[in-house]
Amino acid sequence: MILNAFELTGKVAIVTGCNTGLGQGMALGLAQAGCDIVGINVSEPGETAEKIIATGRRFLDLRADLSSIQGITGLIEKAVSEFGHIDILVNNAGIIRREDAIEFSEKNWDDVMNVNSKTLFFMSQAVAKQFIKQGNGGKIINIASMLSYQGGIRVPSYTASKSAVMGLTRLMANEWAKHNVNVNAIAPGYMATNNTEQLRADGERSKEILDRIPAGRWGLPEDVMGPVVFLSSKASDYVNGYTIAVDGGWLAR
Ligand code: NAP
């Protein structure tokens, strides 16, 4: 029956940056669908761990600063040694730096590109190697952005990094589909999390944005739970290399 295709019982999902925001929402959604969760965080993920354990699933707390790719292999080894296998990777950790393009610093460029694009690629590569070794395929979900489609303002490295996420999603799907690995992305619209705190605090920008969202509200972590479960499940086996906007209709305007 079709609803069984969404079932994730017995699967193991790695979610990066799941101590808060969209990562916490997606980790919780995956746990509710049946996954044990490996959280890779730089900050303490106590609230997320509590919520996952309350669903009856297990939570492995791994810590790493994902601004560097050092240590990725060790993280995958720890996840496999705890749970025996990995089935899903959600590359969620991401940062943003706001500064006029004319003054934008090299540090603000490198910091954002490292977490949002470089680590996302090498984390995917390490997990894809594990998927190929296991021989049962796997699912990778990257977190893109409206700025994978649009230019944005005052966020050049964020726009570059999230445009790269959409392109890399296609490239990895092309190369790894033959191993039954699906690589897709979710492009959240304007969501009420730490990432948009500065925007929401600016009355004028906040109103401009809200007025343009057909749904008439900022998105919430709950809004990405259904899409991530779909892309992690058998129900999406023939969806590959695609970026799904979860934006309350923003791109339709
Ligand atoms: P958030 O609350 O700022 O979450 C970002 C997550 O990434 C946090 O868990 C953060 O940890 C983690 N992270 C940042 N740098 C890290 C590092 N060096 N190593 C390990 N983890 C690191 O914002 P969010 O909105 O939930 O963002 C989640 C993803 O959605 C990001 O990729 C973001 O770009 C994307 N996104 C957000 C929106 C939006 O409107 N909110 C829209 C489109 C895309 P700390 O909490 O410790 O900093």
From TrEMBL:
Signal peptide: none
Superkingdom of source: Bacteria
Annotated InterPro entries: 2-deoxy-D-gluc_3_DH, NAD(P)-bd_dom_sf, Sc_DH/Rdtase_CS, SDR_fam
EC number(s) on file: 1.1.1.127
Record CDD domains: Ga5DH-like_SDR_c (cd05347)
Keywords for this protein: Oxidoreductase
PANTHER family (UniProt xref): 2-DEHYDRO-3-DEOXY-D-GLUCONATE 5-DEHYDROGENASE, SHORT-CHAIN DEHYDROGENASES/REDUCTASES FAMILY MEMBER
Similarity comment: family membership: Belongs to the short-chain dehydrogenases/reductases (SDR) family.
Protein name per its UniProtKB record: 2-dehydro-3-deoxy-D-gluconate 5-dehydrogenase KduD
Provenance organism: Rahnella inusitata
Gene from which this protein is expressed: kduD
